[in-house]
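Q: I'm writing a short explainer about Uracil phosphoribosyltransferase for a general audience and would like to include a description of its predicted shape. Could you first generate the structure from this sequence?
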Amino acid sequence: MRLHVADHPLVAHKLSVLRNKDTSSPTFRKLVDELVTLLAYEATRDVRTEPVEIETPVTRTTGVKIAEPLPLVVPILRAGLGMLDGMTRLMPTAEVGFLGMQRDETTLEAVTYANRLPEDLTGRQCFLVDPMLATGGTLVAAIDYLFARGARDVTAVCLLAAPEGLKVVEEAVGDRGDVTVVVAAVDERLNEKAYIVPGLGDAGDRLYGVV
Ligand SMILES: O=P(O)(O)OC[C@H]1O[C@H](OP(=O)(O)OP(=O)(O)O)[C@H](O)[C@@H]1O
Ligand SMILES: O=c1cc[nH]c(=O)[nH]1
Ligand SMILES: [Mg+2]
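A: Of course. Here's the predicted structure. Afterward I'll give you a sentence or two in plain language.
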């Protein structure tokens, strides 16, 4: 597993506003969207392209286009939905799959309630988006769904990660595939409820309300 921590003053500034408990839901959504755009730029650095002949107003030349099979973006519902638009804005030709997963707050196991992914992901670059990587259980389960369909190249785009969760993901992936985690920051630790500290609270609730 490779880890990329975005090192940029705009990322740090926006993240600090997100962390503030007094930031309202509309502002929170907008900032998540803005942060994803900045992270997506890093996360898509190795997206595969192929040459394409183009004619400029001046001459013929060779450019590039995103290669097929097209990349797949997979938000992990609910909170990951807040990051989808930012990803597809940057990569409009990407296709989109969905995973609905909720952490059981007692057992901390990830429970899957929706799985809508293409049958065959062989050769596809997959981008999982979810703002929080806490114990890592959710991300490991999501990576396993992608691997089970043949994907081997997975990039997870998260806002915050806990060191404990990153270790779990690294150990679970081993040499089974090529996994990169792109984050805005790695926080200190998990608390006794497995929330990220200092963190930003429950990302899903702050985006969409308490349900
Ligand atoms: O690393 P883990 O310990 O597995 O926790 C991280 C998961 O928890 C949050 O989702 P949650 O289960 O709260 O669902 P939600 O998006 O519907 O709020 C978050 O968005 C991740 O999916
Ligand atoms: O800190 C945390 C941990 C899990 N899920 C969240 O939304 N926040
Ligand atoms: Mg939640």
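A: For your explainer, you could say: The mean pLDDT is 97.
Q: Perfect, that's easy to follow.
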